[in-house]
Records
---
Amino acid sequence: MTNKLIIGNWKMNGSRASIKALLAEIVAAEVAPGCEVVVCAPSPYLAMCAHILSGSGVRLGAQDLSAHESGAYTGEVSASMLREFGCHYVLIGHSERRTYHHENDAAVACKTVRALEAGLIPVVCVGETPHERESGQTEAVLSQQVLALTTALSSSQLTQIVIAYEPVWAIGTGHSASADTAQQAHATIRRYLNAPCSILYGGSVKPDNAAQLLAMPDIDGALIGGASLNAKAFLTIAHACLDVDKPC
Ligand SMILES: O=C(CO)COP(=O)(O)O
């Protein structure tokens, strides 16, 4: 049975009350067999989420981490802190961080190493901008982003990471990549990675397109933004892997 990984990225949304309500619904639902469900919460809520999720099948993730192990880095959160507060996963190099915080491929690779050292599973985000796609640079961009990882990580470390293909033009736009377009990009990433990693698709994944995307041979799960803030939508997506033709 192939495991599908379904990750919700709440971004900078929620409050104590709304997160408690959202998690209550997610925890109460049965996780589809062969499907790992993860929620990536804003840092201040991680401890509360870890408490609520303990004993459930749902795993916790963070949305970023420091490239440093510890020290005088005001405002940063280290990998070991995330691990200590119950995180199993951490998102790295989301396009919003690459754009607004100028994170480059080298910083992303460094954070990935920090996460692995602390026992976290890094979910490294890659993807091209609209301009890069329109000008035919998609493969070049993806190969460059993957090269930073294959250069910085040992071959055994490479097998422990998860990649999320998130085309920037599909994030928060309501216009997901088609299943064929996403499959093509995933196959490209897999070829350049040359390691048995899970590759998730992210970018306007919704209940009505999840099954089609998850049915593609190189799509091993989904990274969900907006729809993960609604328990019903998120759980419908998580259950979509049961509907695909191949076992999940
Ligand atoms: O950025 C994303 C997940 O990390 C995708 O966001 P949306 O699902 O809202 O498009």
---
Amino acid sequence: MTDRLTIRRPDDWHVHLRDGAMLDAVARYTARQFARAIIMPNLTPPVTDLAAAIAYRERILAALGGATDFTPLMTCYLTDHADAAMIARGYAEGVFAACKLYPAHATTNSAHGVTDIRALTDVLETLQRIGMPLLIHGEVTDRSIDIFDREAVFIDRVLTPLIRDYPALKIVLEHITTAEAAAFVAEAAHPIAATITPQHLVINRNAIFDGGLRPHAYCLPVAKRESHRLAVRRAAVSGSPRFFLGTDSAPHVVGAKESGCGCAGIFNAPYALETYLQVFDEEGAIDRFEGFAAEHGARFYGLPLNTGTVTLVREPVAVPARIGTGDTAVVPFHAGETLGWRLER
Ligand SMILES: NC(=O)N[C@@H](CC(=O)O)C(=O)O
Ligand SMILES: [Zn+2]
Ligand SMILES: [Zn+2]
């Protein structure tokens, strides 16, 4: 039995660091676990241009106190007015690592998102030409579609025609939750990959209703039934280079979660590696953990692999019930539970 695992320093290919006091409170958790992270741009207002991305990157580094070996990789929030030339310049200058597509009103802070991706031909052609990844929150926003079906319907209605029309467009389907998404990404004859969160490997939709309404188990895409969780787990541990780590850590102050209309998002940054490794351990796939956590994503993005290592040890770690106080009080994923691996560092 492996009791100690040393792997190349991993990256988080999907995280929400927020802004202001919350950024100051949460940034260090991600920087402690990961060498780099793809920073989601859904601030208010969203990060839609170079100046905003540069300023946000500075605020992230400032929140880490300056001396840090963590690299934030910035993304451009696409709107109906996205400017292809500006995006291409941002990519060439190393400001943007990717573009993020939020279908308008699909999730937290997506009101400025795209109403019809098909209308963004200039942007899509440009991304395809320059090899810049398009990151997608893959849910339809049609309120007549059952919320548990919105990812699968997005694949049929939006993603399938998109890859047909842009055969070389690099796509990351973010935070997949369904057997349909896992199969689509595994099998498509297309440069497509997917991020997988800790929570979608661990919980199914029962967790949201376990003895009462559980707002801290609510995120988008919403957790699905057990058969989907198992399919997503199989994809994560499969060894396929198309699946990689993206926490989707999405902190909301406790009062915004425990509310008559609770926000979507699970804050998992403090113990993300511990959760993922526990899953790989349970699946007898510890040998595939490094690929998922530290190699597949970098290769897909065309970025160098990290140097340096992190070590996890098989030791109990108690997750606190709450982290922070006041405006930054958040309930972490696994609050009050004990995990079986601990990140040393
Ligand atoms: N995942 C979530 O439930 N919430 C994210 C947005 C997102 O990633 O869709 C957030 O910003 O809070
Ligand atoms: Zn999302
Ligand atoms: Zn997210």
